[in-house]
Amino acid sequence: MTQIPGRQIHLDFHTSPLIPGIGADFDPAEFVRTLKAAHVDSVTVFAKCHHGHLYYNTDRPERHPGLAPGFGLLEAQVNALHEAGIRAPIYISVQCDEYAANSHPEWVARRPDSGQVKRGEDVFTAGWQILDLATGYQDYLFDQTTEVLQRFKPVDGLFFDMCWDQPSTTAPFLAAMERAGLDPESEADRRTHAHRQALAFMKRFADLVKQHSPDGSCYFNSRPLSGLPEEAQYLTQVEIEALPTGGWGYMYFPKNVRYARNFGKPYLGMTARFHKSWADFGGLKPYAALEYETSQIMAHGGQCSIGDQMHPRGALDRGAYDLIGKAYARVVEREPWLRDAKPVTQVGLFQAKSGGGIDAELANDGATRMFTQLKYQFDVIDAGTDFSKYDLVVLPDNVAMDDALADKLSAYVRNGGRLLATGLAGLSEDARSLRLAPLAVEPLGFSPFTTTYLRLDAALGEGVPPSDHVMYDRGIRVRALAGISAHGQVVEPYFERAWNHFCSHFQTPGEKATDYPVATIAGRAAYIPFPVFSAFAEHGNVPYRLLVRNLVTQLGFDPVLRVAAPTSTEATITRQGDRTIVHLLQYCPERRTRTLDIVEDIVPLHNVNLSLKLGRRPQQAYLAPGREPLPINWAADRAEVAVPVVAGHAMVVFE
User: Fold this and answer.
1) Domain covering 347-554 in this structure, CATH number
2) 28-54: per-residue pLDDT in tens?
3) Above pLDDT 70, what percent of the chain?
């Protein structure tokens, strides 16, 4: 696998043509001094921004008007970085280009009502106009990119941004659809063509980069990571843009990295120094937040990238790089335990699909939250994954199930694998027929009740208060086939709540226990007839997590890692040769505003007991980077240690 630097800066520079003096204060020596002091080893610098302007010496008219004659800011940056041994990949904006949109309105993507596609509510809202790659704009962009590749040959890499699938109704887009045998009046066909167009664009430009700089990196940003099976061939690495306070939240990176890391490409997490999102000039996040975000990236085996935006006059913000430098100093100290460290996983979690009342985003988010709280080590997988490397495969709430996948999962169970399915996963969309034979249940359709109650039996009730626990989301009535273990009872309410018959403030109370089970176990396959992961994401009801934990325990699942720590503690495992490293993260984002989760304080945990299943007794255990030794208790193939303090991020190393 190609290696990429682990302490990167993504240096945004989207600068209006109304601003003069571009780069006037740029001092190459000070620029490099600041970056070196902050332990930075790669900086993505700008050839072209969303305003559509170029920042290097060129005869092209889109050169930024605020650049002094003869001055190329990009040349000055790249030369300074290379002289200092710092990598300098180059940024090019793709579908956001104000200069091109204003110069060639016929290149702007159009909605079905002929209005322009725009990042903004209307024409009078500040926001980017979006370009259509079916028009002459793509060749215009190709010429710009070719010039960059020639002038800076060989480039360290190109970072193409704003590269999503963009449906349009321009004449070239519709004509291309007709040539491809698609119906321009069909919204679905327009989406199909937009996707094909994006793939063709990526191939064309990836080939261009390889032609000019065979060793240069190439990445297309702003694309859904779910497209990696067909798009990874055009990428040299995967970059997971995830600014927690910028709309992504703190679950986006750990959810998506578990899928993105499965494609044999180096990968990085991209956060930022901003209090909010991109271009939050003057906004610095608390240090604890940046420490958490970089620690989370390290704990998942990724490389770090921190976003910044340089002032138009070309000077870096001292406070921002004091903050970044403090975070990256920690990364430097830990790098001996990070290089080539690969995640250790035990569970394969499928990606949910939407349909049948299931919101895939909720289901995926709920499963990630639940398994993180349970300290399970998991990948996010798809139908093309080799299931045999997992002790447990989980199908959350609704999964795209064809005959080939059903056969593959059945073979996995026959060969000793464990399987958990929930909700519609493994059933038909109407919940009336079984599509995955190992579950061995008879589906009877959706419950007539939106809200029911779960009465757990002894096998599923460990740690759960002895109550009838509300299930807020509609489940499925099922019967277990003969010889199959049925656990718990679904308690149904007196009636469905409606405008003309209701009881009390919220849901109708339970009336009687039914014969419908809360869960079933058929050999090594378990099933919960409720969308328990979506419900957990939406409601956070603790019994849902305990139900899943207790059910997989009944399947014989033994977690490779056990940590006696709060559910807020994140735990991951990586392996580096003969070393096994357990990362413990204890940072608690707080909802400090109506929309922002903020980490400001690091509150330490003390005396955290940890138990790790290993193939043989380790010779030593210690805390990195200080190498403080930890006494080991070895019992039943498990190494047990007590971590004296977890102050945000602890790395426990077994050798």
Assistant:
1) 3.40.50.880
2) 999 999 999 999 999 999 999 999 999
3) 100
By CB atoms closer than 10 A (0-12, 13-18, 19+), residue 179 is: exposed
Q: Cα–Cα distances in Å, from 220 out to 92, 207, 272, 318, 624?
A: 10, 13, 19, 30, 35
**Contact between 60 and 25 (Cβ < 8 Å):** no
Give me the residues paired with residue 268 across strands: 239, 303
Distance of CA 604 to the CA centre of its chain: 27
Determine how β-strand 418-422 pairs with β-strand 525-528: parallel
Neighbours of 644 (CB within 10 A): 15
CA distance 601 to 289: 8
CATH assignment of 561-654, among 3.40.190.120, 3.40.50.11540, 2.60.40.1180, 3.40.50.300: 2.60.40.1180
The string of pLDDT tens digits covering residues 272-313 is 999 999 999 999 999 999 999 999 999 999 999 999 999 999
- The CATH code of domain 7-88+237-339 reads 3.20.20.80
State whether residue 20 is helix, strand or coil. coil
Distance CA 272, CA 233 (A): 27
Copy the structure tokens of residue 246: 């910028």
| Burial of 550 from C-beta contacts in 10 A (0-12 / 13-18 / 19+) | buried
Q: How far is CA 113 from CA 77, 132, 170, in A?
A: 44, 16, 11
Specify the pairing of strand 90-93 against strand 42-48: parallel
Q: Where in the chain is the domain with CATH 3.40.50.880?
A: 347-554
Beta strands in 418-467 (DSSP E): 418-422, 441-446, 452-455
**The two three-digit tokens of residue 276, written as one number:** 């909010």
Domain with CATH 3.20.20.80 in the chain: 7-88+237-339
Minimal CA–CA distance to 38: which of 307, 312, 332?
A: 332
Single-letter amino acid, residue 302 = G
| Other CB atoms within 10 A of residue 385 CB | 17
Strand segments (E) across 123-216:
157-161
Contact (Cβ atoms closer than 8 angstroms) between residue 425 and residue 396: yes
The b-or-e profile of 259-278 (16+ CB within 10 A means b, else e) is bbbbeebbbbbbbbbbbbeb
Three-state secondary structure along 26-53? CCHHHHHHHHHHCCCCEEEEEEECCCCC
Q: pLDDT confidence of 2, banded at 50, 70, 90?
A: low
User: Strands 157-161 and 7-12, how do they pair?
Assistant: unpaired
Q: Which helix (H) or strand (E) holds 629?
A: strand 628-629
What is the Cα–Cα distance from 516 to 489, expressed in whole angstroms? 6
The residue assigned the tokens 């809360």 is 518
Question: If you ran DSSP here, which 8-state letter would residue 388 be given?
Answer: G
Q: Which candidate, 646, 642, 647, places its Cα nearest to that of 621?
A: 642
Q: How far apart are CA 390 and CA 378, in angstroms?
A: 9
To the nearest 10°, the Cα dihedral for 500, 503, 507, 513? -110
Question: Phi and psi (nearest 5°) for 93?
Answer: -80, 140
3-state secondary structure of 553: helix
Domain(s) of CATH 2.60.40.1180: residues in the chain: 561-654
DSSP state letter for 547: H
Please, what is the angle between helix 73-83 and helix 28-37, to 10°? 50
